[in-house]
UniProtKB/TrEMBL annotation, chains A, B:
<dbReference type="InterPro" id="IPR050109">
    <property type="entry name" value="HTH-type_TetR-like_transc_reg"/>
</dbReference>
<keyword id="KW-0804">Transcription</keyword>
<dbReference type="Pfam" id="PF16859">
    <property type="entry name" value="TetR_C_11"/>
</dbReference>
<feature type="DNA-binding region" description="H-T-H motif">
    <location>
        <begin position="37"/>
        <end position="56"/>
    </location>
</feature>
<dbReference type="Pfam" id="PF00440">
    <property type="entry name" value="TetR_N"/>
</dbReference>
<dbReference type="InterPro" id="IPR001647">
    <property type="entry name" value="HTH_TetR"/>
</dbReference>
<dbReference type="InterPro" id="IPR036271">
    <property type="entry name" value="Tet_transcr_reg_TetR-rel_C_sf"/>
</dbReference>
<keyword id="KW-0238">DNA-binding</keyword>
<dbReference type="InterPro" id="IPR009057">
    <property type="entry name" value="Homeodomain-like_sf"/>
</dbReference>
<dbReference type="InterPro" id="IPR011075">
    <property type="entry name" value="TetR_C"/>
</dbReference>
<feature type="domain" description="HTH tetR-type">
    <location>
        <begin position="14"/>
        <end position="74"/>
    </location>
</feature>
<keyword id="KW-0805">Transcription regulation</keyword>
<protein>
    <submittedName>
        <fullName>TetR/AcrR family transcriptional regulator</fullName>
    </submittedName>
</protein>
DNA sequence: CCTTATCTGAACGGTACGTTCCGTTTCCCC
DNA sequence: GGGGAAACGGAACGTACCGTTCAGATAAGG
């Protein structure tokens, strides 16, 4: 959108790269999912469509890179807060805030939506993208197990499925905001079950 | 797809109505979300596009009607099974089976995806479609409260958000199948919390 | 009988997709 | 210093779908 850009020769132009991600960022913030098309991004970025397709095979790939960029900017690791309750609540609420305050929420909604129409996108979402996002939670659960806050045989995957499922549900129905302590109570309930070793423990 | 249909005069032709829903059903089963376009449905049904748009303002509306039709065919009410645990597990597993065995799962994925690109579709999904689906669960929770299985002030909305959030997550990541007793354990954990009146109870 | 509403089919302008070709720029290597 | 090689923007292409409009045909209902 600024001055004219062109090739810088034999290698990739980082300005072009940034301009395209910035354009996607702005379109996402202004018009949501529907406003983001490869054509619109190219127009806004002052780039050629072949340039987009040279670096990103699909719109989903572009959105994923945008999401990761925002993530490293806005989302920090969760430090040791003394209890799994506090840490998990901080994690979930941090993610919700991230989704609300940045275009990342829009991007993520788009990525999920796209995955429902494209099998390859679904596999990449489930097998590469989501596991990366679970890394922070895994650290928290490791600490919790070391503290003895959850049983050694607790079904951690199920616990995370429930927490992220809840988050997805709120995101996809546009209800991230209604925080009447729901996250706190949900985490408390799940931790209680995971500690007892009864219900959320391995089968 | 069968013989030629035409107007039957002054009133709506039920064969046309059925043929369009059947065509959507088949396309959904064969090609998933991506295979369903208003054009493709019209072609397969041997119908005119104006006919589709006369009765359904959007693809989402068509998919919702298709979903409801399948639902009344495949999904029954949950009878009194003696415990909320059994009933909720039966409900959730029934829904998962419904999503797996019929095109309804594809339809529902499409409806959710569409809602991420269209605000009107999102509102209709959240404020009309989903509440209808919660009716069965509400009956179960009423019985549970009458039995004293969950506290009178339990946060029923949160409980359902968690259960359906989990189900959505599994549906949208195409992992409805891996039942290692996950549903049973999740329901048990939530019911325990809702009975204690501590964590899942009203704030 | 004739208004009225339905149906199919064809066509329209608009948007986006993903690709191809072109001419230009500049680095990298010889 | 010269010559690929690869990147860049721009234009155009064919395909697909969108949602709408028009035409022509059908047949119920008053």
């Amino acid at each position: 959108m600024t001055d004219r850009r062109t090739s810088i020769g034999n290698s990739r132009n980082p300005e072009t790269h940034a301009a395209i991600l910035d354009a996607a960022h702005e379109l996402l913030a202004e018009h949501g999912y529907a406003g983001v098309s490869m054509e619109a991004v190219a127009r806004r970025a002052g780039a050629g469509k072949p340039t987009l397709y040279r670096w990103w095979p699909s719109k989903t790939a572009l959105l994923i890179e945008l999401y990761e960029r925002e993530k490293t900017r806005a989302l920090a690791e969760i430090p040791d807060l003394g209890s799994a309750q506090k840490e998990l609540v901080a994690l979930i609420k941090g993610v919700h805030r991230f989704w609300r305050k940045t275009p990342a929420g829009q991007a993520f909604r788009s990525i999920i939506a796209e995955a429902q129409a494209d099998d390859a996108a679904l596999r990449s979402l489930r097998d590469e993208f989501l596991p990366r996002g679970r890394a922070t939670a895994t650290v928290i659960l490791d600490r919790a197990q070391a503290r003895g806050e959850i049983a050694p045989d607790a079904d951690r995957e199920l616990l995370l499925d429930v927490l992220f499922g809840f988050s997805w549900y709120r995101l996809l129905t546009h209800r991230l905001r209604d925080d009447t302590g729901a996250v706190e109570r949900l985490v408390a309930a799940l931790l209680a079950a995971a500690k007892a070793g009864g219900s959320l423990a391995g089968d």
